[in-house]
Amino acid sequence: MSNDTNKPEPRKKISLGSKKLRGFFLSHLDKIYSAKAHLVNHLPTIKEEAHFADLKIAVRETIEDVERQMARMEVIYELLDSSPNNANCGGLAGLVDDAFEDIKKHAKENELRDMSIVFYLQNIESLEMASFQVLQMAAVKLRNKQIKQLLRENYDEAKADRTLLLLIGSKYIVSSTGS
Predict the structure, then answer these.
(1) What is the mean pLDDT of the chain?
(2) Domain assignment of residue 161, yes or no
(3) Domain with 62 in it: what CATH number?
(4) Which domain range does residue 28 map to?
(5) Which one of 3, 57, 105, 178 is at 20 to 30 Å from 150 when CA atoms are compared?
(6) How many C-alpha atoms does 26 have within 13 Å on its Cβ side?
(7) 92 in a structural domain
């Protein structure tokens, strides 16, 4: 008698039908959009809490970038004949809320408060970059070059903001250790 229990099972192909893929895409687009709405509402306060002039400028530029990114995302919703839905964005919103707690904790210490702002904005930009990359991969299957391009622009902007924040953080550390 042969023992068929050792035979590997045939591999099942993963099928992301257009309906499933569209649902996944919109669900995650909603999460990022909701997180950006939460962020853009809080960034002006973060900008006011920043002490280092270059950091204030970077936060102002981030506000402008987030608003542009949200506008691009609204175009994507239109292309998909959809609209933004409030989504649970606990992870990204939690980072923003944690940043506020850290800012309050270091209210009287400019250097630590500014480093907290850099730390949290760096983390937020990194998560946004990863999110936009996954949505770009999904957009390939949606077969819409304009959606893919809009997501690419958002990714590039988040990457540029992250790089700017790294440079500012480095400059801040160098200038504060020399004092």
Answers:
(1) 85
(2) yes
(3) 1.20.1260.10
(4) 17-174
(5) 57
(6) 17
(7) yes
* The model's pTM: 0.82
> CA neighbours within 13 Å on the CB side: how many for 143?
2
Residue position matching structure tokens 């850290």: 102
Q: Per residue, what are the HEC states of the chain? A: CCCHHHCCCCCCCCCCCHHHHHHHHHHHHHHHHHHHHHHHHHHHHHHHHCCCHHHHHHHHHHHHHHHHHHHHHHHHHHHCCCCCCCCCCHHHHHHHHHHHHHHHHCCCCHHHHHHHHHHHHHHHHHHHHHHHHHHHHHHHHHCCHHHHHHHHHHHHHHHHHHHHHHHHHHHHHHHHHCC
- As a whole number, mean pLDDT of residues 111-127 equals 88
Does residue 97 carry a pLDDT above 90? no
d(CA 91, CA 123): 11
Structural domain total, the chain:
1
- The confidence score (pLDDT) of residue 1 equals 54
User: Hey, what are 4's tokens?
Assistant: 């068929």
